[in-house]
Structures are given as structure tokens and as C-alpha cells.
Amino acid sequence: MKPSISIRYFIPLLVVVPLALATITTAILAFYSGSQAVKSLIDELSQKSINSIEKHIDTYLQAPMVVNQLNLITIENDLIDLNDVPLLTRYFQNQVAAIDGLYYIYLGTERGDFIGVQQQPDGTQVLVIGNAAEAEGRSVYQLDSAGVRAGKIRNLEAQYDVRQRPWYKRAIEIGEIGWSPIYIFGSTLELGMTSAIPVKSRGGDTIGVVGIDLGLKDLSNFLRSLEISPKGIAFIIDRAGNLVASSTDEQPFLDENGEKRRLPALESQEPVIRSTVQKLLDTELSLNQIQQPISSSFRLNREQQLLQVTPMESTGLDWLIVVVIPESDFMELIYNNLRFTMIIGLGVTVVAITLGGIASWWIIQPIDNLHAGAKAIKANSFSPEMLESTISRSDEMGELGQAFVEMAAIVQTREKNMSEELVELHRQQEQWRRASHKNQDPTVLFQELMERARQARKSG
Fold it and tell me: For residue 273, which of 227, 307, 240, 302 has the smallest C-alpha distance?
């Protein structure tokens, strides 16, 4: 006999299985489409952040370049007297005070003169002035709001010759405006770089070099102001892998035995920065090979991280802008929707199982009664009261139960008649046997028995 599933379980399964499959399929499709939408959203958000960073850097770096060009025009056209130190001091002081991010504006000449105005951390300005021929080096004076010296503060290094400084020599060498490599400003301990341009007389002779020190702390402040995602970060590195700025609180330089040096991104204390740069090196072998925007991903602490890298080569700089966003920042909503879908699906499944069980009981209960009645008939113990609950129903099962009771009555009547006839036949058979012993004609008796048997079958 082949194994078969009971109708008692088949009916609930018939309802529950398609419903469960539909719920699971819906959840899987919703999760997949949600994941794709999240990845598209992260890519779009990353690109938007990178565009904002590029625009800010362009604007931020344009200021010193524009000021340098302005100073170049002013000096080369004799609009300011380089020998008028008080006038030149006020001129530089106004520029430093008016433009955010300008840390230091100065002029070095071929005669070895140096004059500059420097922004202090407390918002005040100082004048730095000296000549290569002076043994005590450059002197530092506090300036009031009118650009007047309020008193000498200190002397800097002895015998400072501006003509031997790297920024001066590089500007003379390239003959146009350019940027120095990034270095750490000694007075403020922050990263910065110098924009320098050579100044010539109308006759073409070199007068000197105008330079502006630009601090990069504002770049980190801008990156922190970006609304990327709850745990997303942005940072900038150069082609050597050194950190330029980041949206984290980590300083972009190291302090080793009192000496400051730039922070390689691979030595960052931020796991995301360190792992991102390692991922780029594993993929591209060298940061110098990244010439086009890159979108990639990696896992960090069992969490998927999506990153975008864009090279920036404007304004003479060669940096990489990186935005990293953990997928979980946006997948949490997808997971919540998935959990909600599964809870709803589970609730509906429980309801379906309950309703399926009730429907199964509604169908199986009269069948069980009929089955028990059939066994009772076989055992000759059937009673109509056994099917009373089935007969009372007004549906097809009730009609079937009524027909079953009527059939059972007919069967019981026939069995009773057959029993009575069999008793009679046994009695007559006994008479025939006795008659055969008394020499009565057995043929006559046999014919009588056969006739009575036919009548019994007809009456049954």
C-alpha cells in the first residue's frame, strides 16, 4: 500500500504552503530590490559628496592664487611702494584678516629682504620682518588693528636668507604660480602649503617672490560638515598615501619624539581609512595608477563598506578624494521592512493554519463519523445516534449522513431477514435429514427446501 498524506493535514497544507511560498518570495524580491536601491543611493550620495568636496577645494585654493595674482599686478605696476614698510604691512594685514584660510602672506626680494603678516591662532596678526644681512635674523612684532607695531615679541632663526628658501627657489625655477608640497606649520602645528609666484619689474628683472601659506585645517572642518551618512566618512590623500584631510577627529600628522611628520593613511588609527587605502593598494598596486573614478567595496568587521575614489588634479594639485559609506547605514531600513514583512507573513500563516485546521475539522469530522458508522455496521452494532451530529448538518455532508442511516437500516433489515431464513433453512435441513432416515422421498424434500430458499432471497 502506497503511503499517502491524510486529508486531515492535506487541506491545511494546501492553504499554508502557497501562502508561505508567496510570503518568502515577496520578502526575497523586496530585499533584493531594496539592496539595489540602497547601492544606487549610496553611489549617488558618494558622488554628490565628492562633487561638493571638489567644488569646495577649487574655491578654497582659488583664494590664495587670486590674491597672489592681485599682489603680482600691484607690485609689478608700481601700485605699492615696496620700500614703504608700514603701507606694505597694512596691505598684507588686510588680506590676511579678510580671507579665511590665509595663514601667512609675505614677500621675499632679491636683495634678501623679507616682510610678511602672519595670522595667529587667537585671531591677531604679527609682522615678521628681516634681511639676510641681519645677524639676529627675522623679528616678530605684534600688530594692532591698524597695522601698527605694538611691540616686539621675539626673534626667529638667525641670519635668514629668503633667497635660499625652497619655496623661493622653486618659484624662480618654474617662473609661474605654483604650490609647494604639503608640510607642517611650526607655529600652529597644522598641515598647510605655500602658493608662490615670482614678481618681475617692467624691465623683466626679478624683484622677488610673493608667497601665501594656506592652512588645510579648514578642509577637514568642511569634510566634517558634510552630511554623508551616520557612519560615512570622507578623506583626502595625496599620491604618496599621506593624509591631507579627513572628516574624522584624527590629526593628519604624527608626533614622534617631539618631531612632527605627516601621517601615512596606512598608519591611521581609523580602521576605515586604513582598510580603504589597503584595499586600493591591493586592487591598483599603486595610488599613482588611479586615473579614473573608482567604485568598489570591501568588508570591515563583517560589515560591507562601499567606497568611491575620484582623482583631483585641478589647481596644480594631485590628490585623491575618497568617500566610504557602510551599507548598514541604509540597509537598516531594508532589514526593518524585511522583518516587518516576515512578521506579517508569519501572522497570516498562523491565521491560515488555524482556518485550515478548522476547515479540515469541518470536513473530516463527518467523514470520521461515517467511517465509525461503517465499522459499527460491520460489527452489527450500528445505531443512528452515532451520526446524529452529521445528520443535523444542512450541507451535502448532512444529506450523505441521512442516506448512510437509511442504507444502514436497509442493511440491518436484510441481515435480520437473512438470519431468520437461515434458521428456518437449518430447521428444514434437519427435517430432511430425519425424513431420509424414515425412507421419505428426499427429492421432494430437497425441492421444497430450494423453493423456500428462493422465496427467502426474494424477501431479503
Answer: 307
